[in-house]
Amino acid sequence: MARANANLTADGHAGPNEQLGYEMSMFTIEATDGGARAGVLRTPHGDVPTPAFMPVATQGSVKALDPADLRSVGANILLANTYHLYLRPGVDVIDAMGGLHRFIGWDGPLLTDSGGFQGYSLKHLRKITEEAIFFKSHIDGSMHVFSPESAMRHQRDLGADIVMPLDVCLASDAPRAEVEAAVERTNRWAARCVDAGAGDGQALFGIVQGGLYPDLRRRSAEFLVSVGFPGYAVGGLSVGESKDDMYEVLGFTTGLLPAAAPRYLMGVGSPEDLVESVARGVDMFDCVLPTRIARNGALFVREGRVNIYTAPFQRQDGPIDDGCDCYTCRTFSAAYVHHLFRAKELLAYRLATIHNLRFVLRLMEEMRSAIEAGSFDAYRGEFASRFVPPEQRTQLEQKRKWLAAQGRPDGRRR
Amino acid sequence: MARANANLTADGHAGPNEQLGYEMSMFTIEATDGGARAGVLRTPHGDVPTPAFMPVATQGSVKALDPADLRSVGANILLANTYHLYLRPGVDVIDAMGGLHRFIGWDGPLLTDSGGFQGYSLKHLRKITEEAIFFKSHIDGSMHVFSPESAMRHQRDLGADIVMPLDVCLASDAPRAEVEAAVERTNRWAARCVDAGAGDGQALFGIVQGGLYPDLRRRSAEFLVSVGFPGYAVGGLSVGESKDDMYEVLGFTTGLLPAAAPRYLMGVGSPEDLVESVARGVDMFDCVLPTRIARNGALFVREGRVNIYTAPFQRQDGPIDDGCDCYTCRTFSAAYVHHLFRAKELLAYRLATIHNLRFVLRLMEEMRSAIEAGSFDAYRGEFASRFVPPEQRTQLEQKRKWLAAQGRPDGRRR
Q1: Do A97 and B335 touch (CB under 8 A)?
Q2: For the whole model, what pTM was predicted?
Q3: Labelling A147: which of A102, A276, A378, B215 has CA 20 to 30 A away?
Q4: Could you give the dihedral angle defined by the CA atoms of residues B66, B69, B75 and B78, in that order, rounded to the nearest 10 degrees?
């Protein structure tokens, strides 16, 4: 275990960052263990211990939970989506209500994604030009333009602590020429976002794209680092590629980023991916997976995922997972949760979401402790030996189905 | 205001009640004001101040809420449905889990309805003979028999504090001959339920039927009082008749019941009906209305009902109802709740349900205080002058639609 200095600065990038009004010291690394890092992210709405998982409140609500639930599961920072909030209720409404924190009743740190991912996930509903992404609303078919400048303006009005630039995200099987063009455009858009500027106290992260091509990832990262951001996201992963490919590209990409800045892997959140990504130096995550599968009755336990609908739970008097400290497991039998799902009771979705989020957030806490104790490798090995993820094929199939459902009126959304 | 003795007994009915193992003293009237009464119902799981409203947990869950929510809105007793729980998860499952209280995580008083109402609301799925009600399951079409004896056996196994006999409930427009036959059968079934017996500590109430016919109501009440029950329910109201008819029959019927026993008006729960029924001497209520309309976005405010979906709420920075002390109003703007409904976020249903239940339970608390203070008439007048119920026609139409939906796989159920 190596203890890092409290206020590392990225080599040679203090200048540009100062120009942006950011302090690199928003992030402090407290301990490292191999590639894994334990730190603290400082925001105007409080500190976030890292590695951190951000529950996703796409439309300003982590589905089925309220802010008290989110505190109870140990959430320290949430993610919301600019594009979705822009469409409904409208950024102007949220601005008039005093900003996103106040509107949703969450006084902790918030990050807003820009809408760039929707340029990928809603692909049959958009056109992308050099100027902007042109969206057809999945709600009412109306036309909307998201440019780097308007994405920044909307995010200033929403007032999250961390904001993201508009980027171009592609599927993992996109041809090289397309990926290359997307990297170049993402870089130009990042520069336009920097010029447009974040709000007071807001930190604008950079997003590294480049698909599965190491040289394109390098080109993207080098450009962003030359501009200088207080944090760097890795985008365009977990979009259809295999886990091996994802881990390889991720490990390569984090190595291109300044050690002192926080690294955020976008859209990743299965337990095994969280552990493997922390091992590769990632500090922040968001993903709908834990909450989405919870609503389908897929619940995390020590050994993997279980389906609460199945017969063995009908008479299980004990909790869903022995030793789980979540409200659901402390209060109700697995048999009751099974019944609620079978009877389609709304409480089922809340109890299951609490359970899965607590599982993931406890995993983050455990990893942080292991890094601090210098025992992360042992933790990672222990985890891999007991937690058996569903077949990779099943996961990919589920992801593809989900992506295909994006943009339908009843489709699930990131 | 007249203060009643602490341990009134029903004239001449101490004998039969003792035979049943009940104590009339499960109910204490602490104050009366005109026909209205303030009392305390004692149960093995705690005391219930009356007038009391019982939120409905048909399938063992008050839709969208958990036990902590129910405490927070001021619920002191819940109602669950024997027929629904018998079908799913099965009484045997709940019995094996230690009974209904433990299964649903509610350690306060519980009342179970027998399934008699489903003999009315699921009328295309049942046949009624002298022996029993034969149901075709609305879940899977399987056949089931509910007799007075099996209804009691199931309720003993569920272990609620108050249990109800199987009864025959009819629509308000049933011909007199049918109503008369139903009264006679309900009386015979009540006697069979008494013979079958409730569990230790359980109180079996009688149910007065008789439709809109005073002489049949009298015949029903006189029989039940001659048997002697620790409490009496008024069934077969709010089943399609006008409010005037309901109030008239209710006032007549409560006058037939022993003053010392608690009186429970089944299936009634609009705010105006609660006030008018308390004025007529009712002590207990249950109804899905406050929770059902909440999930449709119809919310109670001082002046009546509002539709949270409508435009005026889009930018209402204040709470749904000024002066409401519920968690929803203390925590969120009306604009946020409006957004959650528009965006179909699951949290909407919980926040709305909390609000409407708190409204109704606060109404009960206010009525109790007014009765104790001898100012119930003034309270009733003030309430009637400010709270404007939706057009009676609209309400009847809604009720008919709801009843028509009963028994469909996705139908809402009492």
Answers
A1: yes
A2: 0.91
A3: A102
A4: -10
